[in-house]
Amino acid sequence: GYRNPYFAGQYSGARKAGLIRGAYHFARPDRSSGAEQAAYFVRHGGGWRGDGWTLPPALDIEYNPYDSRKCYGLSKKRMVGWIRSFSDETRRRTGRRPVIYTTTQWWKLCTGNSRAFSKDHPLWIARHGTARPGALPGGWRYWTFWQYRVKGALPGDQDLFNGTLDRLRIFARTR
Ligand SMILES: *[C@@H]1O[C@H](CO)[C@@H](O)[C@H](O)[C@H]1NC(C)=O
Fold it and tell me: Model confidence over 144-174: pLDDT tens digits?
């Protein structure tokens, strides 16, 4: 149900400033199905177009910040099913599978280190304050984005893309 009140300005402002930009959905697997949340996300800015300026939709799935159930009360099997449902619906609506933002620890704890997504979902790994992201989860052999710090020279979280600007353009454009 939450929408970033600054989203429209940030999204179009980034584009006007010549930045390739995208949107993310913060997963609440305890609230409703993956498909329902994907539909809500796509309706409210999480869409994708191959215009070269739009990153694929991203699913932010991580430690539950709201209560003590780290995995939102879902079994590993149901968590994998939830993510699958979100991914399938995102692809149905946008033509693209989501990027998955997570941490290695959370993925191990809450999906049993599922290898079901590494083949067709780009990984955006969060690992702060280290020289490298370290061991990757779920059979991913490389990361596409790395969030390496929460503060730095740029506003907000600090992230790297694994590649050149040309590669980023191709990544944005290509299904
Ligand atoms: C960056 O991506 C390439 C594939 O495009 C991969 O071979 C390489 O290992 C990646 N680098 C890192 C640090 O993940």
Answer: 999 999 999 998 999 999 999 999 999 999 9
The CATH code of the domain that includes 159 is 3.20.20.80
36 alpha carbon to ligand 1 midpoint, in Å? 33
- Total number of domains in the chain: 1
Cα 20 to its chain centre, rounded Å, is 15
Across the chain, which distance is largest between two alpha carbons, in Å?
43
CA nearest to 94, candidates 52, 145, 56? 56
Range of the domain at 41: 22-173
Q: Which atom of ligand 1 is nearest to the CA of 133?
A: 13
Q: How many CB atoms lie within 10 A of CB 18?
A: 7
User: CA 113 to CA 47: how far, in whole Å?
Assistant: 28
pLDDT at 147: 98
67 occurs within a structural domain: yes
